Amino acid sequence: MFESDHPTLSDLQRYHRELDAAKGFYTDLYFNALLLQEEVGEVSSAVAQLWRAEQRAGDLDVALHHQRDALAEELADCLAYLVKMANYAGIDLEAAYLSKMRRNLGREWRTWDEA
Predict the structure, then answer these.
(1) Residues 62-74: what's their mean pLDDT?
(2) Distance (Å, whole) CA 18 – CA 7
(3) Where are the alpha helices (DSSP H) in the chain?
(4) Cα 110 versus chain centre, distance
(5) How far apart are CA 57 and CA 42, in angstroms?
(6) Do the beta carbons of residue 2 and residue 15 sit within 8 Å?
(7) Model confidence, pTM
(8) What are the backbone dihedrals phi and psi of residue 28, each rounded to the nearest 5 degrees, phi first?
(9) Which of 40, 77, 86, 110 has its Cα between 20 and 30 A from that of 7?
(10) How far apart are the C-alpha atoms of 96 and 90, rounded to whole Å?
(11) Where are the domains of the chain?
(12) Which residues contact 61 (CB under 8 A, 6 or more apart)?
């Protein structure tokens, strides 16, 4: 699948371009944005299940031991849709991410008590 055990975002974008072509996936940006929202909902559901597991166990690490795989799968689905959408919009996601994080370095962030 990947040449490296640690693929870059660019590698992921290349993979999804090839996968879309091989599988004939629908490459409409707007449709895939809706699918991303569905996956974000599934992340929220996994987090809610994690929270309930933590309440029962009284310990986040114990809860994560049982819920981590489900959360990981949903987060991976979200990443896949973000990568696909970047492809459809002609965006180098790795370059965009690095540019945004550089800008964030100079940004002032409010604390919770200031919100």
Answers:
(1) 96
(2) 15
(3) 9-23, 29-57, 60-89, 93-105
(4) 24
(5) 22
(6) yes
(7) 0.89
(8) -75, 125
(9) 40
(10) 11
(11) 33-93
(12) none
Determine the length of the chain: 115
The pLDDT mean for the chain works out to 95
Single-letter residue type at 72:
A
**Model confidence at 8, in pLDDT bands (50, 70, 90)?**
very high
Structure-block tokens of residue 10: 């660019």
Task: Return the residue matching tokens 């991976």.
Answer: 76
pLDDT of the residue at 115: 62
Which percentage of the chain shows pLDDT scores above 70?
A: 99
CA distance 95 to 2: 20
As given in the structure block, the two tokens for residue 91 are 């965006």
Cα angle 94, 95, 99 (rounded to 5 degrees) comes to 120
